[in-house]
Amino acid sequence: MQTTIRSAISFDGIGLHSGRPARLTIRPAVAHRGIWFKRTDVDLGDTMIPARWDAVVRSPLCTLIQNRAGVSVSTVEHVMAALAGCGVHNALVEIDGPEAPILDGSSVPFVRGILDAGLRVQGAPVRAIEILKPVTVETNGGWARLSPSKTGQGLDMVFRIDFADRAIGVQEKRLNLANGTFVRELSDCRTFCRASDVDAMQKAGKALGGTYENAVVVDGDKVLSPGGFRHADEAVRHKMLDALGDLALAGAPILGLYEGHKAGHAMTNALLHALFEDADAWRIVECDTATAATLPGAGVVQDEIPAVA
């Protein structure tokens, strides 16, 4: 059955790119509502923004969604990943500014808040998107693909990255995201960047709220952030976290295999556009008990939250 959060939970922090303070509150929502964002600092007009693939506006370094009135909210990928990874199907996410707070750079603060609040089961079945044939997008040496599941176990993910900085280098990871894998393996993995890119980002008005506490900064073979990586392959794990958050904008859990090679936010969104443009590539299915048990978030408990949080 679909779920929503039992009670409201709030998070305070600053935006990674804007540097502006923000309060984000996740509230319960009725069945079949899906995930919506609301700008509480906007007084006039339409303040509701659907967390949906066709509301995404191209923006460098983050995922930005915008409604038809031009009201937007950016850097939604980490909270979307947390909602999907905890199995929340319906919620209203209120925010008093243009960008979600970055917190520690991962999804784990959102995960802890969601699981502390608890989930309420709703009287409506979960509907999922089953991938029926491969769909691929390519750009600038990278590619992303959705294809039918080879395991029949919810969402499988394969991701590969290749960075010149030796602190990251080439990393590849394969995961099945059933039964709390996201919470255990990915939720505490932080956003990262190269020290050589920081000045350029800040001159472009980005990363104004970035610190060593909310991002992992690397310089060649060195990790500049205190404490280093939480996992030796934290970088590729964070890319998988981002991908789950961006795939959650499909509007329903995906049953299939996602593969990303040097992929990012824009490419994953382009993949969803390509998927939904091909009516033969997907179908909506109503999940039976066995299928629902393979979805991200099914059966997650607080003890699975990584201790680093």
Automatic annotation (TrEMBL):
Residues that bind Zn(2+): 78, 238, 242
Record protein name field: UDP-3-O-acyl-N-acetylglucosamine deacetylase
Keywords: Hydrolase, Lipid A biosynthesis, Lipid biosynthesis, Lipid metabolism, Metal-binding, Zinc
Family: Belongs to the LpxC family.
Record EC number: 3.5.1.108
GO biological process, one term: lipid A biosynthetic process
Pathway the protein takes part in: Glycolipid biosynthesis; lipid IV(A) biosynthesis; lipid IV(A) from (3R)-3-hydroxytetradecanoyl-[acyl-carrier-protein] and UDP-N-acetyl-alpha-D-glucosamine: step 2/6
One Pfam family recorded for the sequence: LpxC
InterPro entries for the chain: Ribosomal_Su5_D2-typ_SF, UDP-acyl_GlcNac_deAcase, UDP-acyl_GlcNac_deAcase_C, UDP-acyl_N-AcGlcN_deAcase_N
Function (record text): Catalyzes the hydrolysis of UDP-3-O-myristoyl-N-acetylglucosamine to form UDP-3-O-myristoylglucosamine and acetate, the committed step in lipid A biosynthesis.
A GO cellular component annotation in the UniProt record: membrane
Catalytic reactions on record: a UDP-3-O-[(3R)-3-hydroxyacyl]-N-acetyl-alpha-D-glucosamine + H2O = a UDP-3-O-[(3R)-3-hydroxyacyl]-alpha-D-glucosamine + acetate
Active site, UniProt feature: 265 (proton donor)
Name of the gene: lpxC
SUPFAM superfamilies, A to Z: Ribosomal protein S5 domain 2-like
Keyword Lipid metabolism recorded: yes
GO molecular function: metal ion binding; UDP-3-O-acyl-N-acetylglucosamine deacetylase activity
Cofactor: Zn(2+)
